[in-house]
Design brief:
Elements (H helix, E strand, L loop, with lengths): L1 H16 L3 E10 L2 E14 L4 E10 L2 E10 L2 E3 L2 E10 L20 E9 L4 E9 L4 E8 L2 H4 L38 E5 L8 E5 L1 E3 L1 E3 L2 E3 L2 E4 L9 E5 L21 E2 L6 E9 L7 E8 L4 E3 L8 E10 L2 E9 L1 E2 L8 E7 L12 E10 L4 E6 L2 E2 L9 E5 L11 E5 L5 E8 L3 E9 L6 E9 L4 E2 L11 E4 L5 E2 L4 E4 L8 E4 L6 E2 L5 E5 L7 E2 L14 E2 L4 E3 L2 E5 L2 E5 L2 E3 L4 E4 L9 E6 L2 E2 L13 E4 L5 E2 L5 E7 L4 E6 L1
Parallel strand pairs: 28-32, 37-47
Antiparallel strand pairs: 1-2, 1-9, 2-3, 3-4, 5-6, 6-7, 7-8, 8-9, 10-11, 11-25, 12-13, 14-24, 15-16, 16-20, 17-24, 18-22, 18-25, 19-21, 19-24, 21-23, 26-27, 26-29, 30-31, 31-32, 33-40, 34-39, 35-38, 36-39, 41-46, 42-45, 43-44, 43-46, 44-47, 47-48, 49-50, 49-51, 51-52
Length: 642
């Protein structure tokens, strides 16, 4: 029956807080200067296939901008819905009638990167805006107060006290205790102006009444059930389950329940304490227990299996104002936390210490870490990674692809959320890695930009119908374009230039080459080559800019034509010669000495070659006359060596 009521309560709570509007603090940072706006409403609407975030009447550095609306698909995992998008948006006018002019509509397309994360209790977002025209880098962050979302303890700074009882709001001492001996307990809980921050702290003081009564403070309710201080009938307790629908759970003098709602999985609890025991060796104590909301008491009277996590410090020694931090130990991670019971006492031993021992408590905070300590891409650590550097730029090797599974990170808290996504554009691949604290109050986004290798259009190179040859001279190595063969050139006089039997594997830089295409094309493009380069030489000479030449051969319609003067176009090549009256007017292209027709150039690898004369006798490749070439794959060709 208890489980039934607890399940029903959790369901009703879920339904109640599953709102699409969140209220919190908007922090806008422009070129490193931050301003905060409190009580800002941000809405998230589930459209079915995607989500829409709206920040209406957005103001930046005092300037009314307008309504920021971003729509993008999301994914849900481990109870957290996350959206990562890189897009351009337009900002519409706001609906605040007191504003005469909104800047947003004047900005045109606004490029943004956004990470949004939310669950049924809280929401956070990080938006990066790059306004090149304005010379501004803008970051927008939204976060909520943990005391309102159920991730922090209410009145943790002890600035509010109940007038009728003098106890801190949401905290309880013996004035609101239950049990047969509650009226005899003399330990005190009250406000003090001796504080760490703000105006007040809470101070607990021990007293003597037949025995030492420890000063005690709890988020639950104290029970004084036995004269013996060490009896477990004297404890703090918490119960969030209404077992009888006709009997409501009890409330304190302020109408608040005797429990603290807890939706998070904190890493630690921090607090400021001033411990002043009468005997210097005496120590105070703090304990914090997260449970599933069913009944629990501290100290325990039996073995409880409803605990998610515990944090205890039984050695708070005499000190002036000191900050202490105690890690949570997660004893049963499968439990869904619902409530938090925190108890402070003037002495670690029930009934121990002296009358008048005092412990001042202030500024309690639950710690939710959000820090990445390392990022790996495809198993390799990200070069130059630092926790406070949030953007990285690299060149992307040609042919590299990414998925979200290629991104991994190590981070401080096992309870934080890791959100990652790959966003690809024509020019780049963006890898987003975000760590979100468990309370959805802190979000850190790392952006890794990989610039794609941009194709290089071979300037002026075209292979129209009937034109299979072209020359090229460039300043960077390029991948061999599809259906294009690449050759260096040798010229030793006569009426032919010689090219190798096989194409080069890429287009080298700083070397004049011949290109041969098997298919017509109006434009030839290639990606940068990032493999191992080789040193090549070629008889062709080229230039990166238009250059006057004289006495050389230029390529025209598949042959080299003698030109005595003219201008060579940028990235084109020519074959320089010494001026000679008997120079041939044109040069044919030969492969390993064979004059070839444009259509008959053979670039296929046929294996090992053997050479024979017309009588069938094996000769060298350079033998004069007609030479028969037999390849190991059975192919037979003929060449003429002059």
């Amino acid at each position: 029956m208890k489980k039934l009521f607890l399940t029903l309560m959790a369901l009703l709570t879920t339904m109640a807080v599953m709102a699409t509007q969140y209220t919190g603090t908007l922090t806008v940072t422009v070129n490193g200067v931050a301003t905060e706006q409190d009580n800002v409403n941000v809405s998230v609407v589930n459209n079915g296939s995607d989500y829409t975030l709206s920040i209406n009447n957005f103001v930046m550095d005092g300037t009314p901008v307008g309504n920021i609306v971003v729509t993008a698909p999301g994914s849900t995992r481990n109870g957290l819905t996350s959206i990562i998008t890189s897009q351009t948006i337009t900002i519409a006018e706001g609906d605040d009638s007191s504003v005469d002019m909104w800047l947003g509509p004047l900005l045109g397309d606004v490029p943004i990167n956004m990470v949004l994360a939310f669950n049924q209790y809280a929401m956070t977002t990080n938006i990066d805006i790059y306004m090149v025209e304005l010379g501004q880098t803008i970051n927008v962050k939204f976060a909520q107060d943990g005391e309102t979302t159920g991730y922090q303890i209410k009145n943790s700074g002890f600035e509010n006290f109940v007038e009728s009882s003098g106890e801190p709001v949401a905290w309880h001492g013996f004035k609101s205790a239950t049990g047969g001996f509650a009226s005899f307990a003399k330990g005190k809980l009250e406000a003090s102006t001796d504080c760490h921050g703000g105006s007040y702290s809470a101070v607990i003081t021990s007293a003597f009444y037949f025995a030492i009564n420890n000063g005690t403070m709890t988020t639950g309710r104290l029970n004084a059930g036995n004269m013996s201080a060490s009896n477990t009938a004297n404890h703090s307790e918490m119960n969030m389950v209404q077992t009888d629908p006709n009997t409501p759970l009890p409330t304190d003098h302020n109408g608040d329940p005797f429990y603290t709602v807890m939706h998070g999985r904190p890493d630690a609890i921090k607090f400021w304490v001033k411990c002043q025991p009468k005997t210097a060796s005496d120590v105070a104590t703090m304990s914090a227990i997260i449970t599933d909301g069913t009944y629990y008491q501290d100290p325990e009277d039996k073995t409880y299996t409803n605990k998610l996590a515990t944090a205890k410090n039984n050695e708070i020694a005499k000190c002036d104002w000191t900050e202490m931090s105690v890690d949570f130990e997660y004893v049963n991670p499968n439990i869904i936390g619902q409530g938090l019971l925190v108890t402070f006492s003037t002495n670690a031993t029930p009934g121990g210490g002296s009358s008048g021992d005092q412990v001042f408590i202030d500024d309690i905070a639950l710690v939710y870490n959000a820090a990445i300590t390392g990022i790996k891409i495809k198993g390799t650590p990200l070069a130059g990674f630092a926790q406070d550097v949030y953007e990285y730029n690299f060149d992307l090797p040609a042919g590299t692809t990414f998925t979200a599974d290629d991104i991994d990170a190590t981070y401080v808290s096992e309870h934080a959320y890791l959100v990652k996504k790959v966003v690809e554009t024509d020019e780049a691949v963006k890898l987003f890695v975000a760590v979100v604290s468990n309370d959805l109050n802190t979000i850190k986004v790392y952006t890794i930009n990989y610039a794609k290798p941009q194709t290089v259009v071979l300037d002026g190179v075209s292979f129209a119908a009937g034109r299979n040859w072209a020359t090229w001279y460039g300043d960077q190595p390029l991948q061999k374009p599809e259906n294009v063969s690449v050759y260096t050139v040798t010229y030793n006089g006569g009426n032919t230039v010689t090219i190798p039997a096989r194409s080069l594997s890429y287009i080298p830089a700083g070397v004049g080459v011949l290109l041969y295409s098997t298919t017509p094309a109006t434009e030839v493009a290639a990606l940068p080559f990032d493999g191992t380069t080789v040193s090549y030489t070629s008889a062709l000479q080229g230039f990166l800019v238009n250059t006057p030449i004289s006495n050389g051969y230029v390529l025209y319609n598949g042959t080299f034509i003698l030109s005595e003067s003219g201008t060579l176009a940028a990235h084109r090549c020519y074959l320089p010669i010494a001026k000679s009256a008997d120079a041939p007017r044109m040069l044919m292209i030969a492969s390993e000495g064979t004059v070839t027709g444009i259509e008959s150039l053979e670039t296929v690898d046929h294996g090992t070659a053997r050479y024979f004369d017309i009588n069938g006798r094996e000769v060298s490749a350079n033998a004069k006359g007609v030479v028969i070439v037999r390849y190991s794959d059975g192919t037979v060709t003929k060449m003429i060596n002059r």
